[in-house]
Amino acid sequence: MDAATQNKNERINLRIKSSAKRLIDLAAGFEGKTVSHFILTCALERAAETVQEHQMMTLNTKDSRIFFDALAEPVRFNQKLTASFEEYDKRVISK
């Protein structure tokens, strides 16, 4: 069961221009979907792409070798690295 068809207990409300609504109505009709299902499936596809773009790193051979060589080296904590960890802790919320 995909995210578009699971039990629904959350709500999102949108206010849009009438021209945008007409375009969405037309596109949903072309795909044989309700407007809600069309919007949900499009939003979920784009959300998955965005998450993947931010969670995955693609490197060429040279850069991947440099990256893995750096991982193999022992970590030396300097002032910049410590500051980076502190900045990360301020920006990222972990559960």
Describe the protein.
- With about 100 residues, the protein is an all-alpha fold.
- It contains four helices and no strands.
- It has helices at about 20-30, 35-55, 60-70, 80-90.
- The longest helix is centred in the middle third of the chain and has 21 residues, at about 35-55.
- The model has no long low-confidence stretch (mean pLDDT about 90).
Question: What low-confidence regions span 5 or more consecutive residues with pLDDT below 50?
Answer: none
Shape: elongated
Helical fraction: 55-70%
N/C terminus separation? 26 Å
The quaternary organization reads as single chain
Mean pLDDT: 90
Radius of gyration: 22 Å
Percent strand equals under 5%
Number of strands: 0
Category by helix and strand content: mainly alpha
Number of helices: 4
